[in-house]
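Section 5: illustrative case.
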């Protein structure tokens, strides 16, 4: 009976650890996704600004 109780507590602790590890992994993936999205938006804005400048500078060179 005592052995069963120890096994039960070990399993319980392991399941709690697994759940906490999964929660941490989920939080990490959320942070990574938001960071990558943020950098993607920043780089996209930079590219759009560069393209606008290029388009504005092209007609002046042609004429």
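Designed sequence:
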């Amino acid at each position: 009976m005592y052995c069963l109780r120890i096994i039960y507590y070990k399993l319980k602790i392991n399941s709690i650890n697994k759940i906490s590890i999964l929660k941490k992994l989920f939080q990490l993936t959320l942070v990574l996704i938001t960071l990558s999205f943020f950098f993607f938006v920043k780089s996209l804005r930079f590219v759009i600004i560069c393209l606008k400048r290029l388009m504005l500078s092209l007609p002046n060179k042609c004429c």
